[in-house]
Design a protein that fits this description.
single chain; Spore Coat Polysaccharide Biosynthesis Protein SpsA, Chain A; 8-stranded mixed β-sheet; two-stranded antiparallel ribbon
């Protein structure tokens, strides 16, 4: 269910793109299906997007796609299957952008292994973009720029030229002087789960 604030018109159309296609072999299974606080990581991220000001939520799946699709079944999202997910994150980001509303002003790229992302954080990025219209808007977690990252539609042609397992990292680096940073009170909101040890620490959160 969308929060009341999610109906507020902030003057921009921003789509949430959830990247949930990777293999994550270090975890010994499909990481985004592991539960955090009783809900699969991908469920938590998708629900944050749906509860936010994002006008549309797109979920890109690949590895073990049927299981991931089952985990988010019934939610009002656009799903895209990436048959080339093994070629790197860029392939999934391309599909997410291409599936977005052609009229959108930007996308927020949400990683399915960041289970602590909240609708409020996504809203903060969207609201800052509505004010600054910077090509890149991202959280500042402590002293470090972090994910998720909002990318303006003006960058889509550059992003679609990228190849490999870099997502939009090189594009963001090329526009480093145009990045708008949004400080977050709790850096944990931007934490990702990259190893079994990290998962054991966080799984009951």
């Amino acid at each position: 269910m969308r929060r009341e604030s999610a109906t507020r018109d902030v003057g921009v159309c921003v789509c949430g793109v959830v990247l949930a296609a990777g293999r994550a072999s270090r975890m010994g299974g499909h990481k985004v299906l592991l539960p955090i606080g009783g809900r699969a990581m991908v469920q938590r991220v998708v629900e944050a997007s749906l509860e936010s000001l994002a006008s549309q939520t797109i979920v890109v799946v690949g590895h073990d796609a049927p299981a991931v699709l089952q985990a988010i079944e019934g939610r009002p999202v656009v799903t895209v299957v990436n048959p080339d997910y093994a070629a790197g994150m860029s392939t999934s980001l391309h599909l997410g952008i291409l599936a977005a509303d052609p009229a959108c002003d930007a996308v927020v790229v949400l990683l399915a292994d960041q289970p602590f992302v909240t609708a409020a954080l996504i809203d903060a990025l969207i609201e800052r973009f509505a004010l600054c219209r910077s090509p890149v808007v991202r959280p500042l977690a402590g002293t470090q720029p972090a994910n998720p990252v909002l990318l303006s539609a003006e960058l889509f042609p550059e992003i679609l030229e990228e190849r490999g397992d870099v997502g939009a990292r090189r594009v963001v680096e090329r526009h480093a002087d145009q990045v708008c940073l949004v400080p977050v009170v709790d850096p944990h909101l931007c934490a990702d789960i990259d190893s079994p040890a990290e998962y054991e620490r966080e799984k009951d959160a």
